[in-house]
Amino acid sequence: MKFTIRKSDITDILSKVQGITGRKSNLAITANILVKTNETGISFIATDLETGFEGNYPANVESTGVITINARKFFEIVQNFPSDDILIEEVERQWIRISSDKVEYHIVGMSPDDFPDIPVLEDVQYMEIDAIKLRKMIEKTIMISPSSDEKRAHITGVFFESVKEDHGKIIRMVSTDGRRLSKAEFVSGGDLDFYDSPGVIIPKKGLSEVSKLLDSDGIIAIGVKDNYFIVKKDHETIIIGLLEGDFPAYSEIVVKDDHNSIKIEKRNFNMMLKRMSILSTESYNGVIFNFEKNRLMVTATNPDLGESKENFSITFDREPIEVAFNPKYFMETISVIEEDSIMINIRDSKSPCIIEGTEDKHFLSVIMPMKI
Amino acid sequence: MILHLDMDAFFASVEQQDHPELRGKPVIISGRSMRAVVSTASYEARVFGVRSAMPLFQAVKLCPQATVIQGRMGRYKDVSQSIFNILQDFSPQVEPVSIDEAYLDIRGCERIMGSPLFMAQTIKDTIRQKEGLTCSIGISPLKFLSKIASDMNKPDGITIIGVDEVQGVIHDLPIRKVPGVGETTFKYLEQLGVRTLGDIKRVSAETLKNRIGVFGLRLKDLSQGIDSTCVIPLAERKSISTEQTLDKDTGNREQLKRMLLMQADDVARQLRQKKVKARTVSLKITFSNFKQHTRRHTVQTPIQSAREIYKEALALFEKEHLPLFLRLIGLGTSGLIPEDQPVQALLFADSDKNGTEKWEKAERAMDSILGKYGKNTVKRAVSKDFNVDPGD
Prior knowledge:
The complex is a heterodimer of chains A (372) and B (392). With 372 residues, chain A is α+β, with helices and mostly antiparallel strands. Chain A is built from 8 helices and 26 strands. Chain A has an 8-stranded antiparallel sheet. Chain B has 4 domains: 2-8 and 74-165, Reverse transcriptase/Diguanylate cyclase domain (Alpha-Beta Plaits, 2-Layer Sandwich), CATH 3.30.70; 10-72, MutS, DNA mismatch repair protein, domain I, CATH 3.40.1170.60; 178-223, DNA polymerase, domain 1 (Orthogonal Bundle), CATH 1.10.150; 237-373, DNA polymerase, Y-family, little finger domain (Dna Ligase, domain 1, 2-Layer Sandwich). Chain B has helices at residues 10-18, 43-46, 56-62, 73-90, 110-113, 116-131, 143-152, 166-172, 183-191, 205-212, 214-223, 253-273, 306-318, 353-373, and strands at residues 2-7, 27-30, 38-41, 67-70, 94-98, 101-105, 135-140, 158-160, 239-250, 276-287, 292-303, 326-338, 343-344. Chain B has a 5-stranded mixed sheet with strand order 5-6-1-7-8. In chain B, strands 9-12-10-11 form a 4-stranded antiparallel sheet. Chain B is globular. The chains are: A alpha+beta (372), B alpha+beta (392). The interface between A and B is medium-sized, with 26 and 15 residues. Strand 26 of chain A pairs antiparallel with strand 13 of chain B, so a sheet runs across the interface.
């Protein structure tokens, strides 16, 4: 196997697959990237046994073959390579030479026979979606991340479905950690391909790898087939193994019935939360919100440090409500709402609080209070 | 003022109380085997030169007529708990030093409890009435002096060092009596011509620091009547834990799990008493070769019930391979926060929550039964060798 490839064609993608190859799996070879020649150039394949990646790149192929090489080292070599043209060659079994006229590396690979197969899926019904919109949906949902020892599928994964509803063809993603929940929707335009997909749970880790690839405008294809979620760009495909499990029935908690809707200026609210969270620590992360007539009084108490309070003007004219929240959850949620004001919908000290933008109703977030 | 209380020959006195035939006779409390050492000797045995930490065979040689009793830690712990409960009635600031020793900060208690002397007398009377035991009490404005004072009139004594007397006591206090001065420090100080704590005043802080380090500076402070340490009540402790050396080294997981469950009960009870919840659960094991492993896990929502603590400890224990038998197993909790702190509620009903709440109730009910009718009136079925899955 021998080919020449341009540094500028592959540096970026090698950086992006590090999230997959850098993840520990129970096979040592998944730290490697598989490189094989094809008719038009070469393909890269990477997997962590849950998320698989395949990408095709132009190359000047002199002789065909397959190798695997440590993805981290390969990336570092390419990134720092002195010339744009890189000659890659298997000189003897599993010894790979990476060279130009000035520099030369000999790197030991591992046998491609040991590299796990990436599933081949046929007859996938692909839906089309704007890449940037999909990336934002992913970012808004995987922001609620699971703790490292979390095992439950509905927390380590994002609920995904596509359904025709009264207000259009909806692609929906929902994420939770059991304390808060975010729901992001995309309304599919008339000329984009759309298929109904039953609700599935996609690992957040895999989706975060997907979002790295969605860096430029354009329409990309997504689909669900067998036990996989597939994302297809022009030259790249990511296949993620779905999680088995049930996603909790969340429809009731995202309904605003007799909530008080309070419009709040986002920037000031965020600054206030920031000031209140100065005193919060792992052990003391509760902040008390007192909704009173036209004002919100917020107090933070930390027995180890002291206390803080702040008055915040709001339009509010109902029975006072005293409720405690982790301010971090609010800050994270409003950071992904791209509007100047937000709506806070609150009912009482026990019911979840619903937050959304004032205009865009395609994203909402639910935060469960703390028991005082 | 700070009060220091030290039970007199605690373990031996408890045995003499429980076994009237032993009263007035030499009693030696030992560990479990013949290679053991003396853990406590009654005053009657001390007359013969028997001392704590002395090898048992030597003690028996000195005092062959002594009754040697294997210590019953469970019983002593119960009595100790009862004594600490008494102390809590006198001051909220009670710092347990060991099973039979405590400091009380009694500043501000005078108006309710009377003069320090009266208070000391009342404490002694109450303990004698309730448990039939005697103790020695020292009171002074300085924590370290109170400890020294309680030792001055042992057994069954009260020593009060008033504010005016502090300087005089310090001046004459043999340096060897100061807590923390061991053999090595004593030798250094002797070379410097220091015989009493008062003598320290003549030595420069620099010399003290160079010769004996930071402790030298503390000695300097003490000699000037400054003791910055204060009474740290149990509630402010950073962790609550328990551990047990096994009767016999074992690799029997079922037996070890049962011990963990008992320990979880013990720790949970202490958490409830202190009105705190814990965020971190830790497991400590020592192998027969004395190698020690500790593992810890921090949960997101603080826990308090034995059921949840046991669940966490069990998960840690399951991760342990046991290539050797264990000689000790222990369970601890830390990251303690007051139980009235806001707790994050969950969006979806937790299938286990109902069970947890019920068990919390059951555990609190057990607390009240134990409080009313005494130890061992209720306990878990597994502790009586029934093979029941704990918690179900």
